[in-house]
Amino acid sequence: MEKIAILTSGGDAPGMNAVIRSVVRTAIYEGAEIYGVEGGYEGLIDGKLTRLYESSVADIIQRGGTILGTSRSTRFKTDEGFKKAIQVLEVFGIKKVIVAGGDGSLRGALKLSQAGIDVVGIPLSIDNDLGYTDYTIGFFTAVETATEAISRIRDTTEAHGRANIVEVMGRNCGDIALYSGLAGGAESIIVPERKDDIEEIIKKAIVTRNRGKKYHIIVMAEGAGDTNEFAKEFEKLTGIDTKVTVLGYIQRGGSPNIVDRMLGSTIGNKAVTEVLKENSSFAIGYTNGKVKVFDLEEALSIDKVFNDEINEVVKAISI
């Protein structure tokens, strides 16, 4: 009987449990044994593997976080830690591993594949920073969370006649800022990929205030610069009382929306069927409305392309 291990790694994202549920139940349906690794690559090094059954993943599709736990492992990057991880897999007789996580996690998966393990990478990150897939699992729930927060911030900002700089997550990818800024009706969006001239943002704020608009919302990606410094400069140049709201980790938590549940379930299923099909390593992605299979190394070499079309829409209608 084939044995498969699944681990969730890196930053948690809504939809991780949907992936785990799909992987476990598909593996059992296909006649394979499935093992959960507790705590990501750290747990793999320490041999924290538990066999999972259908009942192990009951009532989790709607839950945020991950029942397996996650971590960012520095030990896995060392020769000693990596060798221990391989030894654990050998002891358990596992030759196939499914890794759900972001860019760093999938690069760890590539390292396993280069050591002779069949690996499938699942794109699971709120950042949406993997170039080979249109969307990562967890992204749309994070955008919904940020959009709801922007709507609430708008109410109090308008009441006081202020401006508010809303910092969202995403590391060096501005997609959460771009999508939530558009959906939340922000007046300006600042992303790492396209740093707008502050003079344009200042001009827009002054023009809209002069025509009677009482508030001003700017959504800023965390990788675009220092939010507090920008707020000070904005207030100084516009004379508008300006506050900063850092949304932080609330964007990682909460029940996944229908998109992330669907993506998690379909991509998880595909990961199992592909890893059982042949001896090779893959990344599973979602492009042009379909779940697709990519060579793992090639997938990680594809650069993320910023969506300038949406950015131009924001500029046209956010006035």
Quick overview of this protein structure:
The chain is an alpha/beta fold and 319 residues long. It is 43% helix and 18% strand. One of its GO terms (molecular function) is 6-phosphofructokinase activity.
Describe the structure.
- This protein is an alpha/beta fold.
- Helices cover 43% and strands 18% of the residues.
- The chain has helices at residues 16-29, 40-45, 79-92, 103-114, 139-160, 175-183, 198-210, 227-238, 258-277, 296-300, 308-317, and strands spanning 3-8, 33-37, 49-52, 96-101, 118-123, 163-168, 188-190, 216-221, 242-246, 282-287, 290-295.
- The strands form 2 sheets. The protein has a 7-stranded mixed beta sheet, with helices on both faces. A 4-stranded parallel beta sheet has the order 7-8-6-9, sandwiched between helices.
- The longest helix is centred in the middle third of the chain and has 22 residues, at 139-160.
- The radius of gyration is 22 Å and the shape is elongated.
- The termini are far apart.
